């Protein structure tokens, strides 16, 4: 039986980028791979690698849990849990820090990007973040990790760490593979389409949040940066804005990018954006409806408790095995 794992940081409300690049993929996989064991978590430990406000973090954790369900994750098929409630993630993260080299961590693009944005000093956990991510995956012997392509480099490092540990201590970890989407693996910012869409971006016009008011979301599409030549064509290098909007449109509908180029061959950007804004409305409305139903329910807590108990069972077995392999403590 294949095992899959993935998570999202509650560092804000999830964006359309997180939805297309991650959540939508989890839902598709849960429906396609009926035999697979799927774990999905809320990566709250990752969120504190940059400053967070306590009340906001708590709210974001709960909202992310509800959004997962609202987007179609089925708790009878997926184990949903909160990372910090399974302490073995921290334990294995330390072992991964003892396996990784500083140079490998310093090379990570996300570290370099986020480092320069820190005004209150760079937390050491921002550097060691990929060791925790490796732990998140290796703890469960996951075979497949559905991620957006911005996380490719971290997954490569996870593979390297698994192989290095296995070579040193004998076969312990499964070396995981990434699962990437064809369309829209990376959704870009609506105000600067050479930068990825991120929930922690300072400019709210750069992203669409799954909980954005519908009209606000539609207006963000209508004011998205494009170019002046007016041709609806996918050309990431020369027309990053319109290419990004084409990717979003194709990711949310049955159209391919090619279909859309043909459909809008004789249209202008305003018509195209209006139609895309309607697609966004059709996507967000049912998600927000379900979200409002579940956010304050007892059911949500029960789902998270069940997920935690399942994850803990797997994780505690694995961490004992790892400690034994290394020779930590007394043999158990
Ligand atoms: N723009 C994106 N396009 C496609 N996929 C994306 N993902 C994130 N942004 C995009 C995918 O979402 C999953 C969870 O991401 P995360 O929240 O754990 O971390 P992140 O990649 O750092 O996401 P953000 O929104 O950019 O968060 P902040 O602003 O806090 O750094 C991953 O699978 C990721 O690929």
Brief write-up:
This protein is about 55% helix and about 5% strand. The protein is mainly α and about 325 residues long.
Helix and strand composition category: mainly alpha
Question: What small molecules are bound in this structure?
Answer: adenosine-5'-tetraphosphate
General form? globular
Q: What's the alpha carbon Rg, rounded to whole Å?
A: 21 Å
Largest sheet: 3 strands, parallel
Description:
By secondary structure, the protein is mainly alpha-helical. Helices cover 53% and strands 7% of the residues. It has 13 helices and five strands. The strands form two sheets. The chain has a three-stranded parallel beta sheet with strand order 1-2-3. A two-stranded parallel sheet has the order 4-5. Helix 8 links the parallel strand 4 and strand 5. Helix 4 packs across helix 7. The chain is globular, with a radius of gyration of 21 Å. The relative contact order is 0.15. The mean pLDDT is 95. The site of adenosine-5'-tetraphosphate has 21 residues, from helix 1.
Key features of this structure:
332 residues; mainly alpha; 13 helices; 5 strands; globular; binds adenosine-5'-tetraphosphate
Reconstruct the topology from this structure.
Blueprint: E1 3-8, H1 16-32, E2 37-42, H2 44-47, H3 54-70, E3 78-82, H4 88-97, H5 102-106, H6 109-115, H7 124-138, E4 144-146, H8 152-169, E5 177-179, H9 214-222, H10 240-252, H11 257-263, H12 269-294, H13 298-326
Parallel strand pairs: 1-2, 2-3, 4-5
Helix pairs in contact: 3-12, 4-7, 4-13, 7-8, 9-12, 10-12
Bound molecules: adenosine-5'-tetraphosphate (AQP).
């Amino acid at each position: 039986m294949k095992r899959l794992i993935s998570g999202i940081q509650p560092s804000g409300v999830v964006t359309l980028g997180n939805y297309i690049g991650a959540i939508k993929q989890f839902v598709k996989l849960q429906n396609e791979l009926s035999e697979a064991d799927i774990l999905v978590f809320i990566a709250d430990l990752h969120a504190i690698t940059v400053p967070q406000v306590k009340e906001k973090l708590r709210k974001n954790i709960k909202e992310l849990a509800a959004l997962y369900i609202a987007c179609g994750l089925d708790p009878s098929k997926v184990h949903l849990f909160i990372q910090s409630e399974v302490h073995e993630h921290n334990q294995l993260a330390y072992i991964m820090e003892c396996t990784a080299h500083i140079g490998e961590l310093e090379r990570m693009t996300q570290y370099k990007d986020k480092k320069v944005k820190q005004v209150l000093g760079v937390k050491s956990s921002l550097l060691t973040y990929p060791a925790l991510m490796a732990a998140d995956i290796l703890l469960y012997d996951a075979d497949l990790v559905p991620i957006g392509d911005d996380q490719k480099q971290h997954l490569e490092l996870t593979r390297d760490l698994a192989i290095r540990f296995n070579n040193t201590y004998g076969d312990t970890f499964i070396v995981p593979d990434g699962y990437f989407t064809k369309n829209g693996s990376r959704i870009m910012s609506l105000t600067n389409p050479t930068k990825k869409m991120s929930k922690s971006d300072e400019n709210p016009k750069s992203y669409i949040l799954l909980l954005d008011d519908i009209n606000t979301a539609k207006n963000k599409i209508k004011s998205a940066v494009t170019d002046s030549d007016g041709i609806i064509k996918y050309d990431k290098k020369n027309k990053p804005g319109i290419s990004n909007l084409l990717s979003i449109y194709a990711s949310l509908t049955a159209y391919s990018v090619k279909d859309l180029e043909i459909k809008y061959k004789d249209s202008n950007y305003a018509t195209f954006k209006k139609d895309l804004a309607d697609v966004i409305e059709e996507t967000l409305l049912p998600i927000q409806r379900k979200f409002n139903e579940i956010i304050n329910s007892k059911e949500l807590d029960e789902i998270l408790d069940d997920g935690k108990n399942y994850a803990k069972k797997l994780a505690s077995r694995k961490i004992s095995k790892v400690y034994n392999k290394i020779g930590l403590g007394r043999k158990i």
